[in-house]
Amino acid sequence: MVTPYALVVEDEPLVAELFQRALQDAGFQAEIMDNGHKAQAKLVFTSPEIILLDMNLPSISGSVLLRQIRGQGRLSGTHVVVVTGDKETAKRLADEAD
Question: Which entry of 10, 14, 25, 64 is 20 to 30 Å from 55 by CA?
Fold first, then answer.
């Protein structure tokens, strides 16, 4: 049986580790990327089952990364959970995230 892969894109270490632990407890192999550039590079070679995506990232914003993910056909089956404390951002991106 193949372990499902999850990507946590979050620049706050404690939050990232919390998400990683929760995903691991749910049976995922979870990896943390602490900025948008690293996530972009990783997504060239991987197709996660789920991505937890912070909207306030250094280097590339989460909303730009979300549009890039949604624009790649091979990632069409990837579930993206938007992580933000900004209510307006959450509302604006609700149709693009899962």
Answer: 25
Total of domains in the chain: 1
CA distance 86 to 91: 9
Report which DSSP code applies to 75: G
Position 12 in a domain: no
Question: What are 64-87's pLDDT values in tens digits?
Answer: 999 999 999 999 999 999 987 777
3-state secondary structure of 43: helix
Query: In one letter, which amino acid is 1?
Result: M
pTM of full prediction above 0.70: yes
Domain CATH code at residue 62:
3.40.50.2300
- The residue range of the domain holding 50 is 1-7+36-98
